[in-house]
Structure formats: C-alpha cells, structure tokens
C-alpha cells in the first residue's frame, strides 16, 4: 500500500485549516486517513508557534515506514529537522545564454566609448576657452 503524508483541508470557506495526516495515497484528500500527526493554520502569523504543530517522532516513524511527504509537508519536516529537503530550483536557469552575454558586453563597450567621447568633448571646449582667454589677454595688453 502506498502511504502519503499530506494536508487534509478543514475550516470554512475562505478560512482554511489543515491537518497533517498519513493516508493511503488512493484515498481522497479530505477522506479517510491512517493517522493525524499535526496541524497547519495558514491564517496565523509566520512567527507564531501555533501555525505549525507537528509530532516529529511519529513523522519520523512514518518516513521510516516508507511514507512519501507532499511538497508542503516536506517543507514542514525540513523546518522541524526531521527530513532534509533538497533545493528544487535550478540556479542556472535564470542565467542569460552565450549570445545574450555577448550582446551585453558589446553594449557595455559602446557605453564606455560614448562616455570617453563625452569626456573628451567636455574637455575640448574648456581648452578652447582657455586658449581664447589667453588670446584676448594678449590683445588687451598689446
């Protein structure tokens, strides 16, 4: 028999409350279960100790017996230190590809060239203004 550790929903409409149960994998979500090992109240604050209640000893027993936790229950077990949960996201998935990296490098090079040209253009009028002042001073003296 395939055994699952999962959430069973209770509570009224728009006010969820979940029981953490061990059940036959073929049983309906809110149907018959083998044992209740905890509860989860998502309406409480995340730092509230009453938000997740879990009997770690029974959870460990059922894991040893072959029960498979759902994703959410696996998170609870990891937070309780009962079962280590591997990270599921691929950190390299969001990285740009080779062509995008090349385009970004080219764009950065063009921006650097434009900044240098702007600095040179700003420096050139200042030199011209200094040369004009010197010329005007020479004419005034002469």
What is the compact description of this entry?
By secondary structure, the protein is of the alpha+beta class. It is 44% helix and 22% strand. It folds into two domains: 78 residues, S16 Ribosomal Protein, Chain: A, CATH 3.30.1320.10; 47 residues.
Give the overall average pLDDT. 87
Looking at the overall shape, the CATH architecture of the largest domain is: 2-Layer Sandwich
Principal-axis shape: rod-shaped
Main sheet overview = 5 strands, mixed
Region (Disordered): 84-142
Family: Belongs to the bacterial ribosomal protein bS16 family.
Biased composition (Acidic residues): 129-142
Pfam families: Ribosomal_S16
Reconstruct the topology from this structure.
Layout: E1 3-12, E2 15-24, E3 35-40, E4 52-54, H1 56-64, E5 68-69, H2 71-80, H3 98-141
Parallel strand pairs: 1-5
Antiparallel strand pairs: 1-2, 2-3, 3-4
Structure, described:
With 142 residues, the protein is α+β, with helices and mostly antiparallel strands. It has 2 domains: 3-80, Ribosomal protein S16 (S16 Ribosomal Protein, Chain: A, 2-Layer Sandwich); 96-142. It is built from 3 helices and 5 strands, in the order E-E-E-E-H-E-H-H. It has a 5-stranded mixed beta sheet. It is rod-shaped, with a radius of gyration of 34 Å.
State the main characteristics:
142 residues, 44% helix, S16 Ribosomal Protein, Chain: A, 3 helices, ribonucleoprotein, five-stranded mixed sheet, ribosomal protein, 5 strands, Small ribosomal subunit protein bS16
């Amino acid at each position: 028999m395939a055994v699952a550790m999962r959430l069973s929903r209770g509570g009224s409409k728009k006010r969820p409350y979940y029981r953490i149960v061990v059940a036959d994998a073929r049983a309906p979500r809110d149907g018959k279960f083998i044992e209740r090992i905890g509860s989860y109240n998502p309406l409480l604050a995340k730092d509230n100790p009453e938000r997740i209640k879990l009997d770690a000893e029974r959870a460990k027993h059922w894991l040893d017996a072959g029960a498979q936790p759902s994703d959410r229950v696996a998170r609870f077990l990891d937070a309780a230190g009962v079962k280590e949960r591997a990270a599921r996201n691929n950190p390299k998935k969001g990285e740009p590809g080779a062509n995008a990296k090349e385009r970004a490098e080219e764009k950065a090079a063009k921006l650097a060239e434009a900044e240098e040209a702007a600095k040179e253009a700003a420096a050139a009028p200042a030199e011209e203004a200094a040369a004009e002042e010197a010329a005007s001073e020479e004419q005034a003296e002469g």
